[in-house]
């Protein structure tokens, strides 16, 4: 990942001398900084959370994800990104498509518009690789987050923010074992999505107290998801734990459990405000939190740091934002942030 020196936020050449002057200004700002990541605040009220706005040059960053419409998990990603953008004097261009070829096209559109940096998810890394490489060839720094833990370095991406999904899955499996589970159903809502498949693989590795069965569903058709889970629980009453890989699937599994008259315990990866409510109500036992707000924030903030001071985070290794468990022991503290729309 190389610094794009000699450009403004719109990509216009300013020359080597202008770039040197700009870098000198950045250094001066960094020395005098009083915000958490440098840059003198222009005001005390800018940005979410009350932080100031830096006085570094305006930059444009594209954030391109594989967001599935209706999955509020991505609202948390976007809020974190918007908070960092507001603080860092960045124009954030957010776009998303769950289909990898379309997501790759969005990356190419960002390249064509000459953005200053790109933050991208790599849910289907093979399909995304050519677009990522095109960005790097254009001298646009790229960071990855949320998906692509096993592939980001091979693609030449500079930084990664997220969790090791296999480790997270193992932690879930180990907890299921400790809780006495015997038959676990792990639900994958999109086949071929590497993060989801790694989660269930990790659950299988970590769960030594019994057996794990994989159930594939299509999250684009939630009534079908409910019917499929209901049918499975009716057919196999020995299933005592359902592991969902996202909050909407977990909440649907709660309804399926009721439909089937099952006594299975529902647990999940990822949260949203409705999922937090479900943990409070006891409908979902616990969730694995990878801190999506933090992922969005760090993806944007890291690009600002790189563009303005050549900084990278993680020393060539991924910056882990999870896993952590949310359950009845800590739900009250998390619920406060969920009500604010950041957890």
TrEMBL record:
<feature type="compositionally biased region" description="Gly residues">
    <location>
        <begin position="44"/>
        <end position="53"/>
    </location>
</feature>
<dbReference type="InterPro" id="IPR050555">
    <property type="entry name" value="Bact_Solute-Bind_Prot2"/>
</dbReference>
<comment type="similarity">
    <text>Belongs to the bacterial solute-binding protein 2 family.</text>
</comment>
<feature type="region of interest" description="Disordered">
    <location>
        <begin position="37"/>
        <end position="56"/>
    </location>
</feature>
<protein>
    <submittedName>
        <fullName>Monosaccharide ABC transporter substrate-binding protein, CUT2 family</fullName>
    </submittedName>
</protein>
<dbReference type="GO" id="GO:0030246">
    <property type="term" value="F:carbohydrate binding"/>
</dbReference>
<dbReference type="InterPro" id="IPR025997">
    <property type="entry name" value="SBP_2_dom"/>
</dbReference>
<dbReference type="GO" id="GO:0030288">
    <property type="term" value="C:outer membrane-bounded periplasmic space"/>
</dbReference>
<feature type="domain" description="Periplasmic binding protein">
    <location>
        <begin position="63"/>
        <end position="309"/>
    </location>
</feature>
<dbReference type="Pfam" id="PF13407">
    <property type="entry name" value="Peripla_BP_4"/>
</dbReference>
<dbReference type="InterPro" id="IPR028082">
    <property type="entry name" value="Peripla_BP_I"/>
</dbReference>
